[in-house]
C-alpha cells in the first residue's frame, strides 16, 4: 500500500500541469473537446489492430438478432469515432450515442468509409440515461471500451436492457482489472488516479464481469482475453454478449 501511494505521488508530480489545469477547471473542457478525441483516435488505431480478430468473431452472429420485420436496429453506447462500423452487417440501422459531442470529425470519416450502414441519428447522451430511446426499440446494443468510464456500470446495463427488445443482444469488449496478485494489477493501482484524470474518467481496476453477471440477462457469454498494448495498463480484457 505504501509503495502504491509513493509511486502515485511521483506520477502526480510528473503530471502536475494536468492537475493544475484540473484545479482551475480548465482540463475537463480541453480534454473533452481536443485531447481525448485526438488521443483516442491514435490509441484506438493501435488497439483496433490488436482487437480486430476478437471483434470479427464477436459480431459474427449479429445478423441472427434481426427483428421480426427482418431489419436490424442497433444502438451503440459511446460510439466515439465509429471504429465498430466495419463489423456491422449491410443494411443495419445504427443509432449513435456518446456523452462527448466532439468526435464529429472522426465519426464523419468512419461513416463515409462504411456506407453499407444506415445511420439513423446521433444522440448526445450518457450510457446511464438513454431516455431519448424508447423501451424495447432496438435489436442490439453495442458497448466497447466504454464501461470503464461510465459513472454507473449497473445503471448503464439497466438502460441497455430497457432499450432492447425481448430476445435482443448486448455486445461488449472492455478492459478490466488484472489478477490481484499480479504486478500488472499493482501498476494499475499506481496509474489509477492520474490515468482517470487524463483519460476522461477511465477506471483501470473495474471487475466488469461481475456487473455483467449481476445484470438480468437470460443468457450470458463472457471470455477473458489478452489484447496486449505495450506500456499500457489497459489489460486484460473481456469480450462477449448477453441476451435479454
Tags for this model:
Thiol_S-MT; Rossmann fold; 7-stranded mixed beta sheet; 244 residues; SAM-dependent_MTases_sf; alpha/beta; globular; single chain
Describe the structure.
- One of its GO terms (molecular function) is S-adenosylmethionine-dependent methyltransferase activity.
- This is MET7A protein.
- InterPro entries: Methyltransf_11, SAM-dependent_MTases_sf, Thiol_S-MT.
- Residues 75-172 form the Methyltransferase type domain.
- It comes from Leucopsar rothschildi.
- The radius of gyration is 18 Å and the shape is globular.
- It has 7 helices and 7 strands; from the N terminus they run αααββαββαβααββ.
- The protein is of the alpha/beta class and 244 residues long.
- α1 packs parallel to α6.
- The chain has a single domain (2-243), classed as Rossmann fold.
- It has a 7-stranded mixed beta sheet with strand order 3-2-1-4-5-7-6, with helices on both faces.
- α5 links the parallel β4 (138-144) and β5 (164-175).
- 40% of the residues lie in helices and 21% in strands.
- The chain has helices at 2-14, 16-23, 27-58, 104-113, 153-163, 183-198, 208-214; strands at 73-77, 93-98, 118-124, 138-144, 164-175, 219-225, 237-243.
- The model has no long low-confidence stretch (mean pLDDT 95).
Amino acid at each position: 500500500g505504501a509503495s502504491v501511494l509513493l509511486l502515485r505521488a511521483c506520477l502526480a508530480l510528473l503530471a502536475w500541469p494536468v492537475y493544475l489545469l484540473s484545479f482551475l477547471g480548465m482540463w475537463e473542457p480541453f480534454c473533452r473537446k481536443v485531447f481525448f478525441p485526438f488521443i483516442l483516435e491514435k490509441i484506438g488505431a493501435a488497439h483496433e489492430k490488436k482487437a480486430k480478430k476478437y471483434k470479427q468473431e464477436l459480431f459474427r452472429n449479429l445478423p441472427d438478432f434481426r427483428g421480426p420485420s427482418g431489419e436490424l436496429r442497433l444502438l451503440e453506447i459511446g460510439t466515439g469515432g465509429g471504429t465498430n462500423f466495419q463489423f456491422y452487417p449491410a443494411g443495419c440501422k445504427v443509432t449513435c450515442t456518446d456523452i462527448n459531442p466532439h468526435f464529429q470529425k472522426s465519426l464523419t470519416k468512419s461513416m463515409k468509409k462504411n456506407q453499407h450502414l444506415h445511420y439513423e441519428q446521433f444522440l448526445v447522451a450518457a450510457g446511464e440515461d438513454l431516455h431519448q430511446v424508447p423501451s424495447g426499440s432496438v435489436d442490439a446494443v453495442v458497448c466497447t471500451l466504454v464501461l470503464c468510464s461510465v459513472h454507473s456500470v449497473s445503471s448503464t446495463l439497466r438502460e441497455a436492457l430497457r432499450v432492447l427488445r425481448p430476445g435482443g443482444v448486448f455486445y461488449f469488449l472492455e478492459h478490466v482489472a488484472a489478477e490481484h496478485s499480479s504486478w500488472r494489477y499493482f501498476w494499475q493501482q499506481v496509474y489509477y488516479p492520474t490515468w482517470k484524470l487524463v483519460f476522461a474518467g477511465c477506471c483501470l481496476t473495474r471487475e466488469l464481469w461481475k456487473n455483467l453477471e449481476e445484470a438480468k440477462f437470460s443468457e450470458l457469454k463472457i471470455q477473458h482475453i489478452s489484447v496486449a498494448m505495450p506500456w499500457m495498463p489497459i489489460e486484460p480484457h473481456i469480450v462477449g454478449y448477453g441476451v435479454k
